Amino acid sequence: MQHHELLIFFALLLFAFGLFSKLAERNWLTGPMVFMSIGILASPLALNLFSVTPELEAVTLVVELALTIVLFTDASLIDLKTLSHSSSRIPARLLLIGLPLTMLFGTILGAWMFDGNNIWAITLMALILSPTDAALGQAVIKSIEVPNRVRQSISVESGLNDGIALPPILFCLAILGAEAKGEGPEWIHFLFLQVTLGPVVGLAVGYLGGKLIEHVSRNDWMDEGFLRLLALPLAILAYSFAESVGGNGFIAAFCGGIGLRLGTVSIEVRHKMQEFAETEGLQLILVVFLIFGLAMVPEAVPYWGWTELVYALASLTVLRMLPVAISLLGAKLDWPSIWFIGWFGPRGVASVLYVLMALAAIGFNGYEQIMSVIVLTVAISVYVHGFSAVPLSKRFGSRRS
Fold first, then answer.
1. pLDDT for 231-248, tens place per residue?
2. Among the CATH numbers 1.20.272.10, 3.40.50.300, 1.20.1530.20, 2.160.10.10, which is that of 2-400?
3. Could you tell me the pTM of the whole model?
4. Dist. CA 357–CA 291, nearest whole Å
């Protein structure tokens, strides 16, 4: 019965927030902030309306679907031509220099602060906290006061870094899983299949699907309503085909989005497909943040202390901003722009989905401190980046003026 009640609760919440969504944005309230906060209020920490655990089958299904669509959509939205021809190549610097440095610095600090934990678990924590989520600071992306190349750099970075972080995350999970089960070197063969078959299948599904869709659209064989629907089945096909042959479905979904981008020349066809994918993806993201508040935060709270808080704050500041500053040296950007890009690296839906994926793979027991640090970092980020997006964008714009 609780599943039906929870479904009613989410539907009412989504309907109510939709009615006042524009008003909420003007008052610095983001969707993730509202849904996470209400999830916490409805959890055993406060009103105890629902008791949800990350191990529930329904939670796993939502997480897998959400991650598949998010990875597929993010990759399909990236303009690879613009990325490669950018004059200062800011996104490339952020992804190829800043992101690895964030992972490295996070691992080093974690090994020093949490020396009692498995080094691969600490590395996993640093990797999960490395992708950014521009949706938590959506006001920055929409603000006309922020220069276009700064906005585009933040958006492109957040669209690609979750897919880039996925293979090393899977590597850590494979090692931790093998250690827990006492398995030998056979996990290397398993991982090899995951990271090779996944991209091949994903690119093939996305590219061939895109070509077929464009062909039938050009001949006017397909209703426009179905054109908007086809991104979802393509993402699911990429995931399912890869899993059925031993590849990783999430890597396939990300590569499927890239394949779709390469396979569709028509901007009109691509935009119509992406509109639906973005809208449906938003609903799933809000479900994920509700689950995060209901299930993850209550489980992590008992393990929060000063050490966890210090690492979480460091992750959102120095572990993000220093690598960004290093990566953008010589990029012809002034220091206010560099620090602005460095600050707007929120930890959001990718980190939430990856930690839920990790829980499904290796469990919570034995990794309580590591998992609770990730939850705390995301929870802080949802609030501080949500509240700071509008005022800092205005201040940044006024200073430039």
1. 888 999 999 999 998 888
2. 1.20.1530.20
3. 0.90
4. 13
